[in-house]
Amino acid sequence: MSLVEAPAAAPARRGAATARLLRSELRLVFGRLRNLVLLAGLAAVPLLIGTVLLVTQDTPVAGQGPPFLDRVTGNGLFLVLAALVSCLPFLLPLCVAIVAGDAVAGEAATGTLRYLLVVPVSRTRLLLVKAVAVLAFAGAAVAAIAVTGLIAGAAFFGVGDVTLLSGDTVPLADGLLRALGVVAYVALSLTGLVAVGLFFSTLTEVPVAAMASTVVVAIVSGVLDALPQLSAVHPWLLTHHWLDLGEFLRLQVDVSVLLAGLAVQAAWVAIFGTLAWSRFTTADVSS
Amino acid sequence: MDTTRTLSPRARWTIPAVVAGAVAAAFVLPGALGATADDDLPALTADQLVDRVANADPVPVSGTVVYTARLGLPDVTVPELQGAGPLDLLGGSSTVRVWSDGEDSSRAALLGPVSEYSVVRDGPEAWTYSSADDEAVHYVVDPADQERYDELAEKAAAPPVDGDLPTPDEAADLLLAYARTTTDIDTTGPVEVAGRAAYQLEMSPRTDGTLVDRVRVAVDAETFVPLRTQVWGVGDTEVPAVEVGFTDVSFEAPDPSVFDFSAPAGADVREVVVPLPEPGAMEQPPAADLGGGEGFAVRGTGWETVVELTDVDVDAILGAAAEGRLPEGGTGSSGAEALLDELAPTEDGEMPGLPELDTRALYEQLTTEVDGGRLLTSALLSVLVTDDGRVLAGAVPPATLEELAG
Q1: Which of A36, A272, B89, B386 is the most exposed, having the fewest neighbouring CB atoms within 10 Å of its CB?
Q2: Do residues B26 and B135 both lie within one domain?
Q3: CA atoms within 13 A on the CB side of B257
Q4: Signal sequence span per UniProt (chain B) (predicted)?
């Protein structure tokens, strides 16, 4: 596939080769029709929610549903938050798992992995390039929801001063900043899942297996998180801190809460990242 | 490529293991290290400690409080669906963020997943706000009482030290002497709470007739602000039945804007006028008027005290609460009124996101049918509601209540 661009024989500087590889990898991820459809599907979620709310806003069912949904008709900015919260349990992990699980296993399945390894870039760097490309997709997925959410929200309901969870009202600029924080936090919350997906992707040559296992990890984590008997292990679960994004909408944002959530993601990245590295750099690649 | 060639495959697989170990250590160690107590505190006797606490100047406090209840009550809430609300405090762990200026302004926010329940008090007015159902309740002092409130506030600001009233010192001594008739009071070794060195006071009832095994209060060694309270029931002397304490505390004055609350646009607002209690009514047990009856009796003393209300129309209360309000009439204490309102499960008649959590269903879920009434049992408190309209409550075993009820 993209190997043609990497002159295998040239003793090119390693940095330049890696950069080229990254560019081609990003082109690959964002050029693939399947991935674009995923992004479009995610972007459609806030449109769908916004349309439904617009139609039903004067009916008795208005104001029911997941967090933030009842606020949307009053302030379109909340459409961003409502859409993110709705996508967070399943849709976002699913899309990220599809791309992460495909990263290495997909190349192995189509027989292009061995050619990729001919590129004068170490396997470590190759894995890093793959990871960066998947992370970029995860960021794009969150951004797709947020941007369409903001546009649709503003168009349907208008935006204004933001009422926080504490009942205090902050100016729109402050609210936008907080929403940006939520978007960043959600994107970073997906890094652990990316690492898990990448690891599974190095284990198999069947992309679907890697994708499915990754989704299963996210879902099992969510199920375990709902069992009160396991409260001792809850803080370590991949998905436990995802909804801490609400912290951005409190009177005083407690950074330590957010850092605790990100630290758990960092721990998952460290463990599954090194596992993926061990596997990828020791595996015999025959296809 | 060079670096990846230098490691054998086996060595390569040890790296994730090492990383996993390091990660586990990074998460576990700070907690383990933080548990060590500071032994450098000058020793204080229980008497000295109580004196210090009684005489401490009020200081602003803010921080995060974690409240954990293991009362053995059935789980009646689904915070993920309902949002944070006062009912969460019946069981499990809740996180509350608090701010206080040390005087008459304070704020507490009960945190739920993507929801919050706030109680803000600023002098004579108070607000509660629930993010889940976007409803604010505004409590104000009855205008007729406003003058008297100001007077009281002034008096509280500059309390008369001399005269017939005991000084805080003497008051503390009196209190301690009184408490000692029923309770063993002692200090334990210093502890660390929320990263601060703290003295700890331990109170154990002398009687066997109560559900309370012991109470421990940890007091900051510098400001003498209570940082943590733990109550053990006799059923489980290892794990506290109720534990509430700071996990993070600061004694700097919070930004005054924290106490400046007004209902957000679009929220449902309910106004409640709180009558100020008549002079001398402060000592009245707050629940006396709850059922509209006169009957109120205290049976037993000390830890075995049982409060008995007669002529309580349980059906009326359940019905009234289901309609969205407590029975009319003050409870005799503005604090208790506010508290009751906060704790009344269906104060607003609807639980967000769920079919209404019916007060009666809740009552029936929490209590069990016994001979001649319904009984609520928990690790620390028993309440017996008899069919003839009496309510007995106390930190005593249920059998004691049934015996008293006859």
Answers
A1: A36
A2: no
A3: 7
A4: none
Share of chain A above pLDDT 70, in %: 93
- Residue of B81, B116, B270, B350 to mutate for A, most A C-beta atoms under 10 A: B116
User: Which residues in chain A have their CB less than 8 angstroms from residue B92's CB?
Assistant: 228
| Residue B270: inside a domain | no
Q: Based on the domain organization, do B178 and B305 belong to the same domain?
A: no
Asked if residue B173 belongs to a domain, the reply is yes
Query: Domain check: are B111 and B239 in the same one?
Result: yes
Are B155 and B241 in a shared domain? Answer: yes
Residue of B nearest to A125 (CA): B1
The residue among A126, A157, A166 with the most chain B CBs within 10 A of its CB, best to mutate, is A166
Domain that holds residue B304: 277-405
Contacts of A239 in chain B (CB under 8 A): none
Alpha-carbon Rg of chain B, whole angstroms? 25
* Cβ atoms within 10 Å of A248's Cβ, excluding its own: 22
**Out of A120, A167, A282, whose CB is closest to B9?**
A282
Instruction: Indicate the residue of B114, B136, B265 with minimum beta-carbon distance to A246.
Output: B114
B134 contacts A68? CB cut-off 8 A: no
| pLDDT tens figures, B24-42 | 888 887 766 555 555 677 8
Q: Are A199 and A276 in contact (CB under 8 A)?
A: yes
**Digit-coded pLDDT (tens) for B125-137:** 899 998 888 889 9
Ranges A68-72, A234-238, B79-83: which has the least confidence: B79-83
Q: How far is CA B101 from CA B52, B54, B60, B245, B251, in A?
A: 20, 18, 4, 18, 9
Q: Would you tell me how many other CB atoms lie within 10 Å of the CB of residue A66? A: 17
Give a yes or no: residue B205 inside a domain. no
Whether residues B168 and B71 fall in one domain: yes
B125 belongs to a structural domain: yes
The answer to whether A237 and A192 have CB atoms below 8 angstroms apart is no
